Amino acid sequence: MLKGKGIPIFITFLVGMIMIISFFIPHKPFGDIEKISLNWYSIIAGFTMLLGVDSLIGMHFRKLKRKDENWFFSLVLILGFTATVVVGIIETVRFGTAFDDKSYFTYIYNYFIVPLQSTMFSLLAFFIASAAYRAFRARNFDATLLLITAIIVMLGRVPLGEQISPYLPKFTEWIMQVPQMAAKRGIGLGISLGALGVSIRIILGIERSYLS
Amino acid sequence: MLKRTLLLIVFLILSISLFSENDGLIFLENQTPFEEFAITGKDIPNDGGGGIEIEWSFPDSLDNFFLTVLRKDEAGNNSIVATDLLVSSKQVRDVSSEEDPSRVKDGTKYYYTGILSKKMVDENFLNMLISKENGYSKNGIYIFNNDTFYVTAETDAIISKASWFNLSRIPVVISLILISFVFLYYLNLAKSGKELYIRKINGLDAVEEAVGRSTEMGKPIMYILGIGYVTDIPTIAGLTILSRVSKKVAEYETKILVPSYDPVVMTTAQEVVKEAFTEAGRPDLYNKNDIMYITQDQFGYAAGVDGMMMREKPGAVFLQGLFFAESLILAETGHSIGAIQISGTTETAQLPFFVAACDYTLIGEEMMAASVYLQKEPMMLGSIAAEDLLKVFIMVLIIVGFILSIFAYGFNIGIFKNLFDLLVRALQV
């Protein structure tokens, strides 16, 4: 008899086997199983979003209530969240969709969210510079090799590189297409086999740490 | 070609007076712009039914012409499959979809006709052609409002049907059988008590050190699962490592923070941590609010986690899961607060960033093997050994392919060309 953890393990095995079979059998009902599963997942994900919002708002309400350090930012988050939801509902009623060009919801998206996203993304340039500075310090043979390769690749990708030598861009291309690609594919192979291993361990119930 | 076109034009002009049926339409039956002017159709192989593929092969000079495809069912109902396709596209698929599930019914006979034109097809002409009452469904040349349309003969009856097996996936079946055999062999070997070796992974050996260091410093541990969903293998691998890390955290009586990108991942992480704390005998230390939802916006998530890092100053940061452009933003912030960082991802484009910014990085498969390494159960070790054997097998295949290609295309030897093509065909899905 199945009991305790045996039930979810059996369900995992059954669903895993059905998904494998459906990969090879396009005929109904097998062919539609993946699509149906994804629809189910979307429904579950929709409900868990409520849990997510509860977690986020709950955390900031608690901070506000306790007047924790930086409580003001929690207030900004709650006000911003509430305003966006309210505007979204009003504009949906007004235009039939919150994403109408004239809607204030679109305005919030275009003039608040997009610039904030761009700001965060642009920080990446500075982080790359600081990380590259540390990574390219020639402390040992490996780091020196990395430094030299990086300089060649960087020079080969800008017009200055071609001015120095017409062979530099070609050498850069060779580095990217041969040693770099070989390493990348090697890692890719390992990842694919690793993913296969994880899947088999989960389907066969050998890997159980994901179970609560 | 020019001679043929001139002849056709002269023929058209002469025919206008003879075949004119009304003011707007002239029809020349059985006339074709070139020999073998036809379209063909077939059931789409290896699909779940409800799909027919229509193909044509017209001269290259007509590549910029348009082709409109019409369908007639066995009851005689006409409908439009696609209008104004570029002839160069060579094929179109008539398939049922979620929006129109009964577009192509399995077992029903369908007949297809193509309309070739230099300009986009006239809507009135098209409506006239598909109306059941009208007799203009014969193949030939139609001149409508001074535009010429060449209509092909109907195809033979085409019937769509669902396949019971996707034959194009036979190589996958063979691989699956082979892989299953290898896995089962090693699992049996592990069961029989044979000791299996797993190489040292520094990043995973450092888990205890990282948790211990944080505890000594009185700081929490931050575990970041990235921006993947629970359906992604790296996220699942990240959750399995979270289980082991949480157990250590509970044993050391410290605190773990898990900011999440996806609410499903958050809920799963809450359960994983709760179970780990219970297993470690410290369910009292578990706090649901430490595993919180941030946002489903990539850079919003990065901003939220960075802010949390700067405020909470964790002693150890684990970055295990699926990461994209936010990887370095997170890892550099972690580095700036002096946290010991252990990262792992399957995204090869992000690995250099992690290597540069973190103390330890689990590269791809190491991340997948992490839970095995941390648990060291014989059965789990068996699966790692099986993976390694498969890796050797793939390496042998690559070397064989490499040698064959040198002899086939470097030295131009026919037999090796055949062997190489055979190998490529066998491996293609």
Task: Explain this structure.
Chain B: InterPro entries: DUF6754 (IPR046642). Chain B: It holds the Pfam family DUF6754. Chain B: This is DUF6754 domain-containing protein. The complex is a heterodimer of chains A (212) and B (429). Chain A is mostly helical and 212 residues long. Chain A has 3 domains: 54 residues, no CATH class; 56 residues; 55 residues, no CATH class. Helices cover 80% and strands 0% of the residues of chain A. Chain A contains 7 helices and no strands. Chain B is of the alpha/beta class and 429 residues long. Chain B folds into 3 domains: 158 residues, Immunoglobulins (Immunoglobulin-like); 79 residues; 174 residues, Rossmann fold (3-Layer(aba) Sandwich). Chain B is built from 13 helices and 16 strands. In chain B, strands 1, 4, 5, 7, 8, 9 and 10 form a 7-stranded antiparallel sheet that branches. Chain B has a 6-stranded parallel sheet with strand order 13-12-11-14-15-16, with helices on both faces. In chain B, strand 12, helix 6 and strand 13 form a beta-alpha-beta unit. In chain B, helix 3 runs antiparallel to helix 12, helix 5 packs parallel to helix 6 and helix 12 packs antiparallel against helix 13. The radius of gyration of chain B is 33 Å and the shape is elongated. Classes of the chains: A mainly alpha (212), B alpha/beta (429). The interface between A and B is large, with 63 and 84 residues.
Oligomeric state of the chains present here: heterodimer
For this structure, the CATH topology of the largest domain in chain B is: Rossmann fold
Give the largest interface: A-B, 63 and 84 residues
Largest sheet of chain B: 7 strands, antiparallel
CATH architecture of the largest domain in chain B: 3-Layer(aba) Sandwich
Please identify the structural class of chain B as seen in this structure.
Answer: alpha/beta
Helical fraction of chain B equals 40-55%
The value of Rg of chain B in angstroms is 33 Å
**Structural Rg of chain A:** 27 Å
How much of the polypeptide of chain B forms β-strand, as a percent range? 15-25%
Order of helices and strands of chain A: HHHHHHH
Structural class of chain A: mainly alpha
Count of separate DSSP helical elements of chain B: 13
Number of helical regions of chain A: 7
| CATH C-level class of the largest domain in chain B | Alpha Beta
Query: Residue-averaged pLDDT of chain A, rounded?
Result: 91
Strand content of chain A: under 5%
Number of domains of chain B: 3
Keywords (chain A): Membrane, Transmembrane, Transmembrane helix
Organism (chain B): candidate division WOR-3 bacterium
Keywords (chain B): Membrane, Transmembrane, Transmembrane helix
InterPro entries (chain B): DUF6754
